[in-house]
Every structure is written in structure tokens, then in C-alpha cells.
Amino acid sequence: MKYQDWASLDRHLAQVWGCRICPTVEPPPVAARPDFWPRLMLVGQAPGPREVVEQRPFAYTAGSRLFAWFNRLGVSEEEFRRRVWMCAVIRCFPGRAPQGGDRVPSPLEIANCAPYLEEEIQLIRPATVLAVGQLAIKKFLPENVPLQERVGKAFPVSHEAIEFDVIPLPHPSGRSTWLVKKENQELLNRALELLRGSVGWRETFG
Q1: How many CA atoms lie within 13 A of 21 on its CB side?
Q2: CB 48, CB 102: distance < 8 Å
Q3: pTM (whole model) above 0.90
Q4: How many structural domains are present in the chain?
Q5: Contact in structure between 204 and 40 (CB atoms under 8 Å)
């Protein structure tokens, strides 16, 4: 597979958009194509209803918070979207949870969507992966440990002979109370500084 194989990436995107494997989610799948070949990959949990309509990951309130973090590093939302591969553990909206908020994807839904992420890692060969929220973090760091032991650190990962660094971030959802604690805000600040110095960020944004 040659580097910057846009034809293969576009064929892959067409497969993702056409997927209807899971009867329990609300399609269509969300997949966004950047303007530049990405060296940085962001993996979230799952799109919400706004993301499905707009076909843009992190298009609503959680996105506002997320892009405010990157803006602190001098990168606008528009520029980030143009240069970063943004995806999720599952690509369709899982629906609402009975207790409110979005439903957490089921193990079967996660397994059905897993090959798409695997293929993207093989096609893109990212230098740095941003894992946003526990579900995404566990895709790369499967040990079940608290968020406080993940955020603020970078983890070298070897995945099917492709090596990259994983930088975990908390989920930017307004329902999350994790960032209420000052010590957790300091961990986020540390994670953003690690991101600024990462290979993927430097090769993407100079």
C-alpha cells in the first residue's frame, strides 16, 4: 500500500457510508474526509443525532468544548477538520439511553464497526492517535484503569506492525463531571502539551 493512497481511502469511505449491519442503531454512518492526508487520528465514542444529519463528527456541544481545547494550541476547528482523520468506535448514532443522554454502544455494535477502524489504521498509518473518552481509550489500551491514570500521558502502541503514540483525552460531553476537579483539569492541560509536542501534531500543524 503506497503512502497517501487516496483511491483506497475513498473506496473505504464509500463502504462505511453504505454500511447497515446493525439494526439497533440509527444510520447513516458518519464519516468525514479531510482535505490533506492525515498524520493525526482522533477516535471518539459514537456520533450523536446532529452529527448524523450534518455528517460531521463532534458537530454539537461536545464538539464546541473539544475544539476549544485545540484552539488553546493555536488550531481552529476548521483547520483541525481539514487535516485530521476524525472517526469513532462506532459510526452510527446508537440512540438515546432510557436515563437520558446517548446510549453506550453494545459490544456487538462495537465489534461490527471495529473492522473500519482497523482498516483506517492500516491505510492512514497515523503517527499519533487521540483517543477521546473511555470507550475509545479502551480500543488501544484495553486494561480497565481510571481515567486519571490515562489522561496526561502518552502511550506507545504497536498495532499490526504500525507504531504510533496514543494520547488519551477525557470526553468533552457536558454531562461529564470529570473536569470539575482541578487536578483533572491539570491532567488535561498536560495531555494537550503532550499533543502539541507529538509527531502527529507537529507533522500536521507545523
Answers
A1: 17
A2: yes
A3: yes
A4: 1
A5: yes
